[in-house]
Amino acid sequence: MTYSPPQATNRSTHHEHGDTLIEVLIAVVIIAIAAAALLGGLTTALTASGEHKGLSVDDTLLKSYAEAAKQQIEISQSVAFTQCTPSTYAIAYTVPAQFSTYTVAAQSVTFWNSGSKSFSTTCNHVKPDEGIQLITVTATAPQAAGGYTQTLSFVVRDPNYET
Fold it and tell me: pTM above 0.85?
């Protein structure tokens, strides 16, 4: 005697030969959503990379300008330290050719006031700025690189100041 398993009466006897249209459409929608998410992430990464480059170039130019100014005022004295200077110094600085669309300039000079122990826009002519000044410099990226403006302040000392 041979054993044969019971046959289900409600099962279909034919086999499916492919996917239904609904299954294919659902798969296409899932793939499209994943592709859109990846494309959005890539776009965000590229934008952030461009912004970072603009900011890092601004930062580098600011630091280069500050070093050039300190060197010219304090060390070589090719630009003379001026007590109670009215606006700013004329620093000889050329932006590197590959960044010629960026601008870097000194914006202001403030003077040390030993009485208030702070920098001030007005100079004490009785005891002029005590050989210490705060120079503020800005660097601006072109619109193509984000149009960012950064500011850096640094202190210069009069190399000839005697206490």
Answer: no
Lateral strand order in the sheet of 118-120? 118-120, 103-113, 132-140, 149-157
| The Cα angle at residue 142 between residues 137 and 144, in degrees rounded to 5 | 150
User: At which residue do the structure tokens 């870097």 appear?
Assistant: 104
More confident residue, 85 or 141: 141
CB neighbours of residue 61 within 10 Å:
23
Delimit the domains of the chain by residue range.
21-157
Bridge partners for 105 per DSSP: 138
130: alpha, beta or left? (left if phi > 0; alpha if psi -120 to 50): left
Identify the residue whose tokens are 């603009």.
54
Alpha-helical runs (H) found in the chain: 21-70
